[in-house]
Amino acid sequence: MSPLTRARCAALDAQDPLAPLREEFRLPDGVLYLDGNSLGALPRATPDRVAELIEREWGQDLVTSWNKHGWIELPRRIGDKLARLIGAGSGEVVVADSTSVNLFKLLAAALRLAPSRRVILSERDNFPTDLYIAEGLTALLGKGHALRLVESDALAAAIDAETAVVMLTHVNYRTGTMHDMAALTEAAHRAGALMLWDLAHSAGAVPVDLTLAGADFAVGCGYKYLNGGPGAPAFLWVAPQHQERFSQPLSGWLGHAEPFAFEPSYRPAPGIGRFLCGTPPVLSMAALEAGIDVMLAAEPAALREKSIGLTDCFIAAVEQAAEGLGLDLVTPRDAARRGSQVSFRHVAGYPVMQALIQRGVIGDFRAPDILRFGFAPLYTRFVDAWDAAAALVEVLRSRAWDRPEFHRRAAVT
Q1: Of residues 372, 373, 375, 406, which has the active-site annotation?
Q2: 185 contacts 191 by C-beta, under 8 angstroms
Q3: Catalytic residue among 104, 223, 314, 344
Q4: Residue 267, Cβ neighbours under 10 Å: how many?
Q5: N or C: fewer beta carbons within 10 Å in the chain?
Q6: What is the per-residue pLDDT across 200-255, written as a single tens digit (0 to 9) for each?
Q7: Residue 104 catalytic?
């Protein structure tokens, strides 16, 4: 195979059907942004939408905007839009709270559906907050529940008669490895267990069809590939067959059947609405909706094709020039098992990433030694992948990373 060149990457950009959507984002000059899997870029529509909400809806219409501008409907309205990205139907998704809080709700509800089982099963390398939430819930319940962790390749065999719910992140946050959602869901159901998926690194980046996979529950993040802004609200999905059977522990007023009846006792709302809790953060909701609207302008198949192309190009560009420089690819080479990111291991991972950021190539670092690069198909170009690879190789060859300021750890890595 002939070596990859920058000219070849530019040619791919010229043929890219998603290229016009890059103009829907504010991207600073001189920056190669490969961290959309941590915080998505700013859609151009977002500042105007939020300003309109502040100036007119809040500033002029005040509290009447809950009805006049449909603020009260935001969790469900945006949920219905988001459902189209994850293979769900209308009335099956709500946007609310954080991923961690939503995970707590769903795990608690799932355990109530499996009263004779006591195990939450997950993989050892799952995102830590998911494991922490499971640990905290089992301790709070005090009924002998336990979180059991196994290696990724042992998951299917570990699901047994004690397993109440299998809790997995679809795309691993460090390595970018993507689970076979349908196969693992089937394995869970075959053992009588429920299946909960965390879509934080999937929604908006890789194809997801929760209905086709037969999953039971899902949570996801709004500020990564969905471009909802820092701390954007998260979402949760419950399969229709479970919605009326479910009860969740955070029985707040907006999850009540009639919130404005102000009854002294809780009655759950029908369907997915019972998973709401408190008042929605309207400004954040508006920003998230702007990000999702851009995402809905893209064909899902085109997103996936470009994601695979970008990650393939980056891997090839790095490896054809980085031999002997200490990089070890940890992301699967098989595109079918890869999310929209590429991770390399390097003994000096943290200072290498800081040197890259200083040069305008923004990825991130994940302990203990992972250089992580996220590829958002809506706005990342093939030449960005090439130029980022060239910068990485140059930083390693020159040892530009080995300066004191690059070794000092910041609060966020």
Answers
A1: 372
A2: no
A3: 223
A4: 13
A5: N
A6: 999 999 999 999 999 999 999 999 999 999 999 999 999 999 998 878 899 999 99
A7: no
Given the residues 33, 104, 127, 382, select the one marked as catalytic.
Answer: 127
Cα torsion through 366, 102, 39, 197, rounded to 10 = 60
DSSP string, 171-191: B-TTT-BB--HHHHHHHHHHT
Among candidate residues 76, 224, 306, 381, the one labeled active-site is: 224
* Residue spans of alpha helices (H) in 15-127: 45-52, 65-68, 74-83, 99-113
The CA R_g of the chain, rounded to the nearest whole Å, is 22
Q: Look up residue 298 and give its amino acid.
A: A
**Of 16, 35, 130, 198, catalytic:** 198
Which residues partner with 237 through β-bridges? 93, 218
Catalytic residue status for 225: no
**DSSP 8-state assignment for residue 168:** E
At 128-152, the pLDDT tens digits run 999 999 999 999 999 999 999 999 9
- Cβ(248)–Cβ(266) under 8 Å? no
* DSSP string of 85-109, one letter each residue: TTT--TTSEEE-S-HHHHHHHHHHH
Q: Long-range contacts: 350-354, Cβ < 8 Å, 24+?
A: 350/406, 350/407, 350/409, 350/413, 351/401, 351/402, 351/403, 351/406, 351/407, 352/392, 352/395, 352/396, 352/401, 352/406, 353/413, 354/401, 354/405, 354/406, 354/407
Assess whether 266 carries a catalytic annotation. Answer: no
